[in-house]
Amino acid sequence: MSILETALRERNKMLEQQADQYANAVDNLSNRLAEALRRLAPHDPDYVRGEAPDLVPDAPTPTVEDHGASVMPLTVHEE
User: Fold this and answer.
1) Which residues are within 8 A (CB) of 48 and not within 5 positions of it... i.e. 6 or more apart?
2) How far apart are the C-alpha atoms of 46 and 55, rounded to whole Å?
3) C-alpha to C-alpha distance for 59 and 49, rounded to whole angstroms
4) Per-residue pLDDT tens for 11-50?
5) What is the DSSP string of 6-70?
6) What span, in angstroms and rounded, lies between the C-alpha atoms of 13 and 20?
7) pLDDT at 61
C-alpha cells in the first residue's frame, strides 16, 4: 500500500504543477488580450466596448457647469 500511496502522491504533485502551468498560461493570454483590446480601443471603441466594457468608458456625456451664474436666453433684436 505504501508504494501505491507514494505513486499517487507523486502523480498528484505533477498534476498540481500542470494545473499551475495552465493557470499561468491563461493569465498570460488574458493579459495579452486585454492589451490588444486597449490598443484597438481608439480605433474601434464600439467593438471593444462590446467585448470588454470595462476597458472603454461609455461615451462621455456633456456636462454643464454651474458657477453660480444664471443662464440668460439669447435674444436677437432686429434693426
Assistant:
1) 37, 40, 41, 55, 56
2) 11
3) 10
4) 999 999 999 999 999 999 999 999 999 999 999 999 999 9
5) HHHHHHHHHHHHHHHHHHHHHHHHHHHHHHHHHHHTTT-HHHHHHH-TTTSPPPPPP-----SPP
6) 11
7) 55
